[in-house]
Amino acid sequence: MSEPITYASAGVDVEAGDRAVELMKAHIEATHGPQVMGGVGAFAGLYDASELKRLPSPLLATSTDGVGTKVAIAQAMDKHDTIGFDLVGMVVDDIVVMGAKPLFMTDYIACGKVEPTRIADIVSGIAKASAEAGTALVGGETAEHPGLLGEHEYDVAGAATGVVDASAVLGPERVRAGDVVIGMKASGIHSNGYSLVRRVISSAGWDWSREVPEFGRTLGEELLEPTRLYTQPCLDLITALNGDPTEGPLGEDLPVRGFSHVTGGGLAANLARVLPHGLMATVDRSTWSWPAVFSVVAELGGVPQADLERTLNLGVGMVAVVAPEKADAAVAHLNAAGQSAWVMGEVSEYSPEDVSGADDDFVQGAKGVDGGGVLLRGSYA
């Protein structure tokens, strides 16, 4: 008689999953405020939404994302405590773009084999970033997929829910000709474009442990630099300039018109999504310089500038569009909050003749949105 087949012999270790939960429990609970009902381990997370009653007309905002092939570098480096930070940034800062405050988040980790310490490291990063964003981590799932993923392979995804009053929603309908475009510094490559980056590194034959003088650390350490979180600086800017909707509905002409989270597709494509049809943002490249990591990737792979611009953030992780009379105040407010920011362009009306011959320097409409246009001018500093 052959040996009986068990779940463990099929490659799933239930006890390892339980150990992982115990290791991550304290990290998760550290993100919980009084609004989180119950503890870790329930079938679903519960969040007390009573505070939403303070808003005249609350709307829920939701977003979901992953971190792409950046996980391959974390696995190669056997360093897993930062990838969760990237996950939170990719999700909650998409919610902030709408003017919404992220309330709670859930995560999903699929792996070939549950290694409790590794899973706990991933979740510790998620929890740390959630706490910084003021977002409760209310639940998650770790799934073991032997035969589908390798023993040391995993992928992560997450979803968050936020709230914004209907009078405070930001977006293209608020943007006007004459508005000012403000850039906010990125911490590095963030979590987009790693298929390009990994291809460049592989073609060059570089190892992740290679010391790179321009970085002052190893290549792998530089590429695993966590995604910067813009949640609190952006929310604070909204409150400072637009007002607090809990005190009553906001007016029509809000000084902070909108934000653009610079993720996949690069600066121009993402900025175009938050501009109305018929308006164009002209962005001056000379207002900032590339962080070293982008210059190294460009030179090492001979990557054309146009390809870099439509793939990587090139040092700009978030963009704000504000009324011209409040531009200086917005920049000052962001810098005082520790978020490096600067004026990088302005919004104007345009016609097709204005961008004739611009070619790759001009983007109009992106990611299914038939919105405004973005023209990149000049050379980088």
UniProtKB/TrEMBL annotation:
Span of domain PurM-like C-terminal: 176-349
Metabolic or biological pathway, per its Swiss-Prot or TrEMBL entry: Purine metabolism; IMP biosynthesis via de novo pathway; 5-amino-1-(5-phospho-D-ribosyl)imidazole from N(2)-formyl-N(1)-(5-phospho-D-ribosyl)glycinamide: step 2/2
EC number(s) reported in the record: 6.3.3.1
A GO CC term assigned to this protein in UniProt: cytosol
Recorded family membership: Belongs to the AIR synthase family.
Domain PurM-like N-terminal: 59-164
Top-level division of the source organism's lineage: Bacteria
GO biological process, one term: 'de novo' IMP biosynthetic process
Cell compartment(s), UniProt: Cytoplasm
Assigned keywords, A-Z: ATP-binding, Cytoplasm, Ligase, Nucleotide-binding, Purine biosynthesis
Source organism of this protein record: Nesterenkonia cremea
The UniProt record lists the keyword Transcription: no
Name assigned to this protein: Phosphoribosylformylglycinamidine cyclo-ligase
Gene Ontology terms for molecular function: ATP binding; phosphoribosylamine-glycine ligase activity; phosphoribosylformylglycinamidine cyclo-ligase activity
Lineage: Bacteria, Bacillati, Actinomycetota, Actinomycetes, Micrococcales
